[in-house]
Amino acid sequence: MIQTLLLDFDGLLADYDHSRHLQHLAAQAGCAPAMVDAALRGEHLERAHARGELDGEALLQALNTRLGSRLSAADWFAARTAASALRRDTLALLRQLRPAVRVAVLTNNGPLSVAAITALLPGIEVLCSATLGVRKPDPRIYLAATARLDGVPARTLFVDHLFRNVQGARSAGLHADTAHHTQSLRRVLRRYRLL
Fold it and tell me: Are 45 and 31 in contact (CB under 8 A)?
């Protein structure tokens, strides 16, 4: 019997618009979105943040140095929140889960984005690659997440919209499946008798 449900955030519980995130940051920085993108992705600052190599303060300092700006954690929070559209029907489905199932989110993001995701999902624990020290689809992240939740891999179900992440979870001994919208998630949850 499944006791723990681990869910992806972007692409499953919410739609994420990276260009909107860039536009918000660029507006605060007083530059073009392409400049923000070049610093975050082109210079791998965002990936380093998601890996836990740069904390939020270090990421913002590096970004501000490159852009000549004064972006703050509050600016990032506002941009990430504006770029994340919650899938309300999917979240409503989670309220129908059978009692005693522990629900958490597992995301390849750094602390700055996790602060926004946590605010968007009150009551749901959010685990991230930066804190766990490894990214999906590496099997070690699923074991670390399960341990953090005091769970057992064989009694944990992981659901993601990317099959490569599902494969990683299966390699770690978790039950795992893909879902892209509420209907497919409902089918998965019913298959595992969670509804």
Answer: no
